[in-house]
Specification:
alpha+beta; 210 residues; three-stranded antiparallel β-sheet; 30% helix; six-stranded antiparallel β-sheet; Phosphorylase Kinase, domain 1; Serine/threonine protein kinase; protein serine/threonine kinase activity; Transferase(Phosphotransferase), domain 1; serine/threonine-protein kinase; 2 domains; ATP-binding
Length: 210
């Protein structure tokens, strides 16, 4: 459930804002409703940094998230429905599947007692979803507990392709690294080219942590 709104926009694009799901350094994730079909969505917005060049790079990366995730259609990956720029607020946004559940990070912080069978089931589900994404030419680059959702029914889903790299993209070049350091593969840390094996390294770190 979203928390009550403060001075939040009433709508972004065609989506009606119902609450706030979370806030981060990059922006706010809202609980919203698509009035056309009555579907609840998680609406991720981007707060652009100061400086025109940096702001444009962030906007490109944000829209790349929609491009990367938008070509993926898999039960183990959060579905992206729409993306755009709201004319009234100037906010870039991505509308995605609203998942009722908790992140793996939240469960770990609450001390959830994962059994060996839990770890095996979660690991297998994530491996299948990543294999699908890699076959489509998409590398996530930021596999970590916060980006793994466990639904109320126990299904496992990967979210936040915010730093995903299309295999054909030239936006991220050698010498740059993107991701969360504690879960990065050695090649990510050194800024070397990466492929799907980097995601598998990060997955291994997550499973070891469980």
């Amino acid at each position: 459930m979203g928390v009550p709104m403060g001075a939040e926009p009433k709508a972004i694009g065609r989506f009606e804002i119902e609450g706030v799901l979370g806030r981060g350094a990059m922006g706010v994730v809202y609980l919203a409703r698509d009035p056309v079909i009555g579907r609840k969505v998680a609406l991720k917005t981007l707060v652009l940094p100061e400086g025109a060049d940096e702001a444009e790079e962030f906007r490109i990366r944000f829209l790349r998230e929609a491009q990367a995730a938008g070509i993926l259609n898999h039960p183990g990956i959060v579905t992206v429905y729409d993306a755009g720029v709201d004319e009234a607020t100037g906010l870039s946004y991505i509308a995605m599947e609203f998942v009722e559940g908790k992140s793996l990070r939240d469960l770990m912080r609450q001390g959830y007692p994962f059994s060996y069978s839990d770890v095996a089931r979660i690991g297998a589900a994530l491996a299948v979803a990543l294999d699908y994404a890699h076959a489509k030419g998409v590398v996530h680059r930021d596999i970590k507990p916060a980006n793994i959702l466990i639904t109320d029914q126990g299904a496992v889903k990967i979210t936040d392709f915010g730093v995903a790299r299309l295999a054909t993209s030239s936006l991220t070049t050698t010498g740059q690294f993107i991701g969360t350091p504690n879960y990065m593969s050695p090649e990510q840390v050194t800024g070397s080219p990466v492929d799907g094996r980097s995601d598998l390294f990060s997955l291994g770190v997550v499973l070891f942590e469980l």
